[in-house]
Amino acid sequence: MIIAGFTGQLKGWWDNYLTNEQRFQIMNATKTEDEKTVQNSVYSLVMNIIEHFSGRWSDNSETIRTMLQNLRCKTLTSFRWYKDVFLSRVMELPESNSTYWKSKFIDGLPPLFAERIRKVFRGAGMSIDYNNYSYGKLFSVCTQEGLALCNEIKLNQEIKKHPLTEIQQLGDFCEQFAIDIPSKRKKSHKKDFKNKKGLPEKRHEKTQRRKAFHKARKGFIKSKNPQACYKCGRVGHYAKDCKIKDKIKELDLDDHIKDTLCKILLNSSPEISDTNEGSSLT
């Protein structure tokens, strides 16, 4: 269906789109080869079809240059795609063999890998003469260095996984030539604590903080002495239950004598019970 559809487009293009003069020029196109005139109608027809249907036969160089300038290979995973697209586009330019586009291909690779490729081409010199290298040579060197990089990464991973195996395989080889095998163990350094005493101000601050902490703890410690009544000073009851002072106030005596009796009761022995005191006062 696709072929039939395109064939119908070509027929309509030839019958309806082209003028009689254009059809005549295509059918009678010629070219000169070895001073002889040769008919070139097929080539002219193909070029006209490309011009009218794809639009790439006209001067499309600026678009291709812009595209190649922005073309990048961010990772080596996309290297094959990058190589194919770059080569297919650069060959459409009239200056495709210039050193600029060859160096541009290397610049579009990942930065570290691109520097590695430049180092290979540079060799012992200071600059790279891209005129001596074709695109095929650039591609082959990139492929070889990419494979070498993969092998290096795998080798480093294996060395990290099996460090002891490598030392065992080495055996006494280094000792035979009086070479010490470097050890990865960290050297232990003894710290001198004698000269690292705290400053006097800091020691004073620590002492003050300790005193304040212990003083605060002492405030929460309960007293071991038994609770005593603050009215009569006797142990065994609280002030709300004390009856002695109330009974003294009920006596018909002078205030001075009442105060004296209270003082005597406070200084007297706590062994006397409250009931005895009440009876003696009455």
Descriptive overview:
This protein is mostly helical. Among the domains are: 2-53, no CATH class; 61-158, no CATH class; 239-281, no CATH class. The chain has 14 helices and two strands, in the order H-H-E-E-H-H-H-H-H-H-H-H-H-H-H-H. A hairpin with a 2-residue loop joins strand 1 (30-33) and strand 2. Helix 7 (111-122) crosses helix 8. It is elongated, with a radius of gyration of 55 Å. Residues 269-282 have low confidence and may be disordered.
Kindly name the structural category: mainly alpha
Our estimate of the beta-strand percent is under 5%
Please give the radius of gyration in angstroms. 55 Å
| Terminus-to-terminus distance | 137 Å
Q: How many H/I helical runs?
A: 14
Looking at the structure, what is the overall shape? elongated
Pfam family, one: DUF7746
Region (Disordered): 185-216
InterPro entries: DUF7746 (IPR056648), Znf_CCHC (IPR001878), Znf_CCHC_sf (IPR036875)
Keywords: Metal-binding, Zinc, Zinc-finger
